[in-house]
Fold these 2 entries.
Entry 1:
Amino acid sequence: MIVTKRKQLDEIAAYIDSYKKFFLIGCYECASLCGTGDEVAIMTLKDWLHKEGKSVTGWFIAKTGCQILGTKKEISAYRELIEEAECIMVLSCGAGTQTLVEFFEGKPVIPVNDTLFIGNMRRFRDFEERCRACGECFLAITGVCVVTLCPKSMLNGPCGGYKDGKCEVNKERKCAWIIAFSILERKNLVEKFYESLLGPKDWSKANSPRTLAREK
Amino acid sequence: MSLLREKLLKGDFVITVEITPPKGPDVTKLVDKLHELKPLVDAVNFTDNPSAKMRMCSMAACKLSLDLGFEPVLQMSCRDRNRLAIQSDLLGAHALGVRNLLVMTGDHPVWGDHKEAKPVYDIDSSILVNLVQKLNDGFDINGNNLNGKTDFFFGATVNPVAEPLLPQLKRFEQKLKMGAQFFQTQMIFDVERLEMFMEYANKFAPKVIAGVVMIRNKKMLQFLSSKVPGAVVPKSLMEKVENMTDEDIAKFGVEMAASIIFEIIERRLCQGVHIMAFSKVQEVKDLLNLIEKRV
């Protein structure tokens, strides 16, 4: 999922300083799993806005905020409440926020969250980054994503910086390549892996902005 | 021309030192140091923003050294340059007369004084070794023709004290296969660890230069142990210096480095030593004096 984290309130306060009336939009997908776009998150923000002397004209939670047409259809039921608001606050990822930016050219659309990474949930709302969306997946070869989990994106084995198998960048974390290497060992594939060089990686596959069109 | 290559290929023992280029535009001290070290060692390595701390570039320091007739080794890491910048810098260095290279992945920016910098790591050090081999064959990384072949004598790094060791050994083999002509090791405090590595490495007959460091005080030892990625200070050494004064440690540090080097030479464990940065010229002189006496 796309992992998000609510911004600090003082940062949000600075963005909305000149507005009084708000409409809030959450998202039932990743942001709800992260607790940054569900009903609780919306109510918390609403309470805070009230304490700041602001008012909320209404709110709703989009089924999938990044699905442009679906969200457009859902939002039509709230048109009047949105008209009444001076500013729209979005509790989703950056993609969802931009769905709303497209709809309301005349109104400020403020992101409540920072979008952090593509990750997995280990325990309730404990997230780990697992994928950098690099466009060229090597998981079939390396077992774990070394492009993401290795801070240096080493493709051919560990650097020389690990100590007792722990990453030089974060001592709490096992070196991604020590994990990948043990997977290769378990599969008896170490020798085969080192028969050739992995990479250089084609980073052009990660050149932003990317699009993907439906195959006709 | 590379004297380092000639000596290593001939089977001679080499001694190299490491200098960190200055933090700032003033090269007076650097040039003084080069004058003093030149008669003492075979070549001088210039580090590439070591520990991700911003310094003058290795290439400029290499040029200053070449102008003094002191053979440099240009160190290049994958941290700060993408493949375009790496190749164009290498061609530039070659045009300036640089022939020796030591290539490595490079410490992560979290260790440095620009923690906010975007780490590049477009390619890793195995790919970089392969890239230099291609330049020497007259091609860029994509196989496009160059208007000539470079003549680099290029080495890679290996960490014989890494735990677990096997992944390091496989990468060592890979770099060798990709064309690395010599290897420089992470700092060695424990000759036994070097010996274990060489037992494995020797079947490939590589040219290995062992990294040696002269410890000066407890603070430095702590620094090496906790702030230098991949460096391992043995517990026994920590305990040994525990009750020593810093003055005694400095003396002991030179003697310890000398006996490590002496043992390497006497037992022909590998083909050279590299005196890592953090050293003062006088310490290098003291060290080399001690070795000369014993050899």
Entry 2:
Amino acid sequence: MTEEKKDFFVSDISLSYQYTAGNATTRFLNKVAEGKLVAQKCPKCSAVYVPPRGSCPRCGIATEEELELPDTGAVESFTIVHIPIPGNPIVPPYVSAMIRLDGADISFLHLIQEIDLAEIRIGMRVQAVWKDKSEWGTTLENIKWFKPTGEDDVDPLVFKFKE
Amino acid sequence: MKDIYILAYAQNPIVADAKAANEVELIMPVVHQVFEQTGFTQNDIGFTCSGSCDYLQGAAFAFVEGLSAIQTNPPIKESHVEMDAAWALYESILKIRMGDAETALIYGFGKSSPGDLPFVSTLQTDPYYMSPLWPDKISLAALQAQLLMNKGVLTKKDMFKALTQSISNAKNNPNALVTAVPSEDDYLSADYLSSPLSAFDCAPISDGASAMIIGTEEAVAKLGQPKIKISGVHHSIESSNFGARDLSTSESIIGLGKKINLKSVKLDFAELHTQFTYEIPFIRGLLDLGNLDINLSGGPLAGNVMMAAGLDSIGKSYELLKNSDFHNGLAHASSGPCLQQNMLVHLEKIND
């Protein structure tokens, strides 16, 4: 019997982690599970962060003060996705957008639907469309997507970071 | 060449599991403490450098998030090493020596509790020939310990002595994680994790962060505190191929001892970055340290925050010199399996 000669072998690489969001983000996610968007404010420069990470990256200090924001905002930036991504259940074309909630100083990535793709633009007013309450968990996926409100656009200059 | 001094150092209480707290939340307190000690703000810092390992967090570029712990507006000069923060200190020393900065802020952080540390460490070995075999950190250390025992360099008794001395000393460090000294019976009867090492021989899984500020003579003069000078610092690395190394000795450590001219210094103590009991008698022999006090802070066996513990050896040496009659301390940092890479730092108290 001759032994088969191999000049390579496959070694699987995987490590599992128990990921933790951080104390501040944990507080945020627990509120999201109740349908509330609770931002955190820098005690020094007053910048409002949502989702909060627990610190103001400009000042390097903890953002302890919390304030609830509405689920309305404006499109700060967007892209229309035409190419399907393996494993992604959303059917293209769809809109990925940076949403700036009213009262926030940073934006976060979410979807925009219930819209004519030709209409999407920076400054467009949008509002969250929530899943049914029975499906809520500690995730921003509680919001299915954002949809246009039909209100007048905001001036894109409002997106400039406060000095 | 400019003389460089340590101006401040802070360490978080070391915990086995920091729970929900993330890295930013671990870093912020120590950075604020070193600013408090010096009266500096980020605006007084010429260069900022951190040490961490993305594999500990399990996310690419995780170290960037760590920057949220410090003030970055107005923009700062910043760098990072995917290593222990002792090497972030080394980079900072070079920056100051090159005249690019007068002061530097260094921080290191590690949260080992979320993953399986012995295997996470495997990914720091050579990715082509070594890590696909998944040798874990404890087994690699055990290989070296067994070799040293076979060669008669050290015994299990030496290891027990190193352990009890370290843990007894841990009472000097309010941030230490392990303070209960085991009995010899408990030690000798403990199950092996990897022969000849039991859990007692291994530094505990730890979460935490540490920070340090260094600066030039002008910077330390303003503080009106004892001047602790970095009189010598060198590092060297051996091959990543275990077969190419003689694990029964350490060319790196012996060479560094010569480079730093240890023979000419009357040391008062040494703080060694020893993550396994056997490494203490091993390095004691390699550097010919005789009966010198080693790890008066308890060292990594009493709490071992990955990517900060090497900086802690230097920081604890600084604290000892500052708060005692000692004049000369030796600090050691290491990286990689079986003490592959090492750094020696000679710290000296300068009397005006």
